[in-house]
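Encode chain A's predicted structure.
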Amino acid sequence: MWTPVIMLLLGGFTIAAALSKYNIAKMMATFVLSKAGTKPRTVLITSMFVAMFASMWISNVAAPVLCFSIIQPILRNLPSDSDMSKALLLGIALSSNMGGAASPIASPQNLIALQNMSPQPGWGVWFFVALPVCIISILLIWVLLLVTFKPGRNTTIVPIRPMKDKFTGIQWFISIVTIATIALWCASHQFESVFGDMGVIAIIPIILFFGTGILTKEDFNNFLWTIIILAAGGLALGKAVNSSGLLHTIAGSITEWVDGMSLYGVLVVFAALILVVATFISHTVAALIVLPLVQQVGQGMSEPHPNLLVMGSVLMCSAAMGLPTSGFPNMTAIMMEDSQTGQRYLQVKHFITRGVPSSLIAYVVVITLGYGLMLAVGF
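Encoded structure for chain A:
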């Protein structure tokens, strides 16, 4: 149950805890949003990209919470049934989901994908494939929200003020350690002889932040241990399914079924399958169930491309966002209430009418642009 992947998850949680605790994430996000001005469409796209970027580094569980707290002044000054507030909340939730695919530590399913890929791609390769897919998907979702909500109509927006605080020494230290760790993760293949694995690099922020007292025992106890145990349990389950031969048997029958289909055909089928599964159950659990299977089927094809199929499937895992229960960002968004009236901003229908098309948009981007990029990096 203990692998370098779990260590990477702990390193990611440590960085996220430091960025949140010392308000670095909030200062960066408010600074960017303060530049967005008061045009509804600009505010919407800026908020969406801030949510995506935050999801990459402080997990897509904490990112929407952070973004929702920053846009509170905008929400408070809009009428309770305003389309702009619906578009903003939904835009942030959908972008946080997409941001969950953008970096290897953004969400647990990415770490499960790394576990099922050999050779494991470095961070640079991951960014090369995932970032264009996420950015194009978010731009298309933004257009969808503009067309369906028309948030610009009779909407006046209060500009967000940047925080006036100066960066302290501790904040500089945290920022430098974070950037250095991410840079090492990106170049982990070049430093293999020094560090051995990405999991070892993850120990750097843990020692520097906990060892200096920047983070305390309480912060350690507040980590999402349920997610870590879930990932560890999933790895143990994967080992069991593999060593017992069950995975081999199931994958064998699926390989026969997809026999004669092109690599592209298999990607289209698996991406659709995981999109449906991950919409109804948690993204992480969907990845735990489907990714080992995808890897085995990819291995068994006449021209094996297991990494391409796993990467394509895990991108779709994050893009499953058709229901309020699909992923943490959606659950957080549907809980948001108007402070004056106590009514919820979003209903289930908003997710079905905007979230399902958004998932399909992302699906098309993954099987077109994503497929091309994955072939380009040699998956």
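The mean pLDDT is 85.
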